[in-house]
Backbone:
């Protein structure tokens, strides 16, 4: 595995490629200044060496621009017309190769993290300053860092090249570094074992001043996510695994890297891993109802818990604030009990500028497709194609007066298609006529402004500025999910609130738990962890509803109907849309469509549409049209795009290293 003197064997990195979780603000050049032998003579130096590994990990919040995987721009939930600027976006126009991965080439840095962890395991006893408790925590965090590095490699590249505990000497003969990749299932087990070990040593909580440092729950949350992905059709003998990986075999023994045989026990493992986190002290983020919280819609009969007080039902909370405040900076990350693993993020703060209208200091370039907009429910939980008389969906007419709720205001001249929608729509989407408060600025004309994306609107094509005629959303929609009413990027005294980013949310755990249970046909007893805790899991409809409905109720919506949970097939159709909406622009959609095997269907069979931004309001803006730009027209999904390629230089250096299918040339 000579992968190699420039990657896995490197001790330090002279160039930082990624912004990351630098928990202790360690100098990037610490290892350049201190001899490695000295590291293990000092507790302070050893801790800096440990957390220096975190500086090499990808920034989990970097999902918007130069991200470490295709993320948003490489999925069906967003794009920009700045097609040449971002390597992740070039992924779906087939311009990424094994020679030009750019920011997505995380392979070298991950093996540096692994080597750092292995060095700690090999030499930690040299540090006489450590107490027994110090040693436990450092070993625990080193296992976490090693497991986390492999986790990132698994998500990007699939089956791992596992180094074990070896710290490879750079002076060995080339043959000493030649190793084969493990199968996907072997890789999953290795990562989970690492994180289980880490969890036994890591603390359940961390002080506020180091918020973002992983905890025991972070390890358990990652295990749950890995187990769910491993149980999904792409990696568990489903039809997608046969379509994309039937010929993907290890050169040494011709074993399939990806299992071609379905195993229900993987779903049982996933369900148990999720249940372990469900049983911990987490809850969905909620804000109590206030005087301006709208009442729950009347007439809901299928969900007997809907009108009960939270957490049994949806009463007594403000759905809009409960969802919006979690992302926009109103609720501090370290206070949010929904964040199983989270961090403070300047990346997210800076990314809000991608959505702001150009005349208000933004770049106005991130486009959300119409299918996302149409997927949001009406306020009573009905689909837009089956709306009720009390909360009708119509594309005729416009608002004529202000409508306010939960601190959110809809101004006049807003299309009726954006009225009566669920709370998450207003917390997440910027549409034509949407109000931008920008309360922090005191400059007239820079706050309390509506943004119109029509041809002649103040944020449409004719208003594109800053020397780039592409800084307008060609679909007519931008993301407002991370934007606070006080945020402003221009005007006197403008300011943008600090943001937190959820690496793992409790809502994700709940929906993955429901998904895992829904896939079971038998009762399974699962033993997890070194504590050997036992979990009994089955397709318990009440348990599925209990988990899933919490997410719905928090959004102010009624829960599942009996028909929707009557079979796995019915439930899956509901789950697909719920995850797309709940986790919009959190980086999960890219992985979901792949693990389910629906990415080709979503990318190739559903053209990206939006409003007709070449038209004025009266001239046809509110007609759905296919987005007419090269970034959209040239999008294509090829089978090879299920995984990223390993950089070609690594393949050349390690002759036993099989390239991912489709990327061999």
Residues:
């Amino acid at each position: 595995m000579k992968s190699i003197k420039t990657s896995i064997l490197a001790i330090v990195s002279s160039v930082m490629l990624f912004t990351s979780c630098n928990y202790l603000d360690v100098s990037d050049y610490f290892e350049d200044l201190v001899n490695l032998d000295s590291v293990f003579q000092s507790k302070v130096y050893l801790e800096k060496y440990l957390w220096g590994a975190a500086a090499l990990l990808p920034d989990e919040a970097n999902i918007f621009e130069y991200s470490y995987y295709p993320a948003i721009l490489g999925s069906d939930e967003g794009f920009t017309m700045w097609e040449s600027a971002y390597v992740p976006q070039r992924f779906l126009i087939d311009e990424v190769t094994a020679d030009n991965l750019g920011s997505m080439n995380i392979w070298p840095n991950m093996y540096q993290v692994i080597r750092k962890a292995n060095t700690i395991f090999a030499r930690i006893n040299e540090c006489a300053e450590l107490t027994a408790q110090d040693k436990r925590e450092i070993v625990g965090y080193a296992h976490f860092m090693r497991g986390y590095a492999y986790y990132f490699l698994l998500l990007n590249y699939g089956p791992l090249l596992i180094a074990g505990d070896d710290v490879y000497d750079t002076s060995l003969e080339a043959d000493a570094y030649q190793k084969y990749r493990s199968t996907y299932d072997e890789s999953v087990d290795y990562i989970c074992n690492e994180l289980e070990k880490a969890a036994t040593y890591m603390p359940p909580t961390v002080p506020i001043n180091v918020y973002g440092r992983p905890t025991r729950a972070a390890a358990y949350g990652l295990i749950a996510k890995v187990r769910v992905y491993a149980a999904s059709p792409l990696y568990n003998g489903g039809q997608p695994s046969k379509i994309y990986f039937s010929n993907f075999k290890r050169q040494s023994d011709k074993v399939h890297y990806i299992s071609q045989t379905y195993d229900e026990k993987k779903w049982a493992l996933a369900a148990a891993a999720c249940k372990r986190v469900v049983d911990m002290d987490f809850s969905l983020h909620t804000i109590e109802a206030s005087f301006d919280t709208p009442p729950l819609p009347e007439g809901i009969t299928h969900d007997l818990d809907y009108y009960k007080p939270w957490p049994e039902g949806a009463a007594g909370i403000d759905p809009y604030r409960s969802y919006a405040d979690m992302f926009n900076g109103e609720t501090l990350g370290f206070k949010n009990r929904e964040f199983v693993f989270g961090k403070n993020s300047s990346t997210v703060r800076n990314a809000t500028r991608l959505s702001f209208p150009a005349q208000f200091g933004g770049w106005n370039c991130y486009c959300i497709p119409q299918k996302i907009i149409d997927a949001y429910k009406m306020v009573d939980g009905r689909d837009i194609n089956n709306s009720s008389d009390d909360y009708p969906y119509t594309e005729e007419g416009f608002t004529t007066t202000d409508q306010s709720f939960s601190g959110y205001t809809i101004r006049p001249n807003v299309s009726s298609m954006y009225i009566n929608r669920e709370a998450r729509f207003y917390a997440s989407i910027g549409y034509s006529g949407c109000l931008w408060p920008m309360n922090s600025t005191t400059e007239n004309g820079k706050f309390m402004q509506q943004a119109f994306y029509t041809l002649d609107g103040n944020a449409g094509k004719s208003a594109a500025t800053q020397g780039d005629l592409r800084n307008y959303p060609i679909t007519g929609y931008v993301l407002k999910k991370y934007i606070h009413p006080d945020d402003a990027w221009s005007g006197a005294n403008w300011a943008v609130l600090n943001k937190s980013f959820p690496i793992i949310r409790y809502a994700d755990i709940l929906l993955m738990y429901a998904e895992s249970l829904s896939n079971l046909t038998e009762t399974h007893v699962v033993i997890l962890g070194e504590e050997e805790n036992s979990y009994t899991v089955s397709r318990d409809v009440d348990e599925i509803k209990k988990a899933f409905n919490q997410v719905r109720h928090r959004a102010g919506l009624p829960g599942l109907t009996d028909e929707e949970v009557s079979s796995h097939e019915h439930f899956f159709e509901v789950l697909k849309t719920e995850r797309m909406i709940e986790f919009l622009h959190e980086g999960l959609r890219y992985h979901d469509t792949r693990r389910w095997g629906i990415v080709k269907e979503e990318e190739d069979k559903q053209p990206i549409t939006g409003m007709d931004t070449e038209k004025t309001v009266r001239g046809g803006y509110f007609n759905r049209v296919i987005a007419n730009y090269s970034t959209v027209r040239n999008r294509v999904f090829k089978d090879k795009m299920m995984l990223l390629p390993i950089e070609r230089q690594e393949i050349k250096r390690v002759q036993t290293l099989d390239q991912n299918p489709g990327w061999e040339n």
Summary: The longest helix spans residues 132-157. Residues 1-29 have pLDDT under 50 and may be disordered. DSSP finds 22 helices and 14 strands in the chain.
